[in-house]
């Protein structure tokens, strides 16, 4: 296994462990165990647990951007339907996982952003990148008259992303998708252009 692939494997396995259990509930030893690597191998790639998490957030963010692009950067269906399909996909993933894991970036934002400024900065950059992608699709929907023009495309994208982040938090607290479904129905009603 090559250097790059080994590092990506460590990030993939370790970030999944943190996504499901939280930053403070996962130590380096748990990451070493799930990756079946010695401590020295970990420190060949990461200077600390915080460095590992920062790189994991960036890796996860890139994977998320690829997912977003696969739904939103197409010509068909309509922009609103592309947004609906993307968020339905997220809801379905979380439902299949038992509504208890959520999004790594959202989870770490809640757990760390108020107490760890360097990681908060990395998290915010990922939120911004995804929001910009959503905003492009919103703008396309505005240009076609599908989505309200009362607010800028970026404001609407921020509203959508903030809303699903909150819904993910409630999903985990209640261990069901009730708030995700409410968020979904209300969001698309609120952003629709009114005749």
From TrEMBL:
- UniProt DNA-binding region: 27-46
Keywords from the named record: DNA-binding, Transcription, Transcription regulation
- Tagged with keyword DNA-binding: yes
- Gene3D superfamilies reported for this sequence: Tetracycline Repressor, domain 2
Q: What is this protein called?
A: HTH tetR-type domain-containing protein
Pfam families hit by this protein:
TetR_C_13, TetR_N
InterPro entries to which the protein is assigned, alphabetical: Homeodomain-like_sf (IPR009057), HTH_TetR (IPR001647), Tet_transcr_reg_TetR-rel_C_sf (IPR036271), TetR_C (IPR011075)
* Molecular-function GO terms, alphabetical: DNA binding
Q: Which residues form the HTH tetR-type domain?
A: 4-64
What is the organism lineage in this UniProt record? Bacteria, Pseudomonadati, Bacteroidota, Saprospiria, Saprospirales
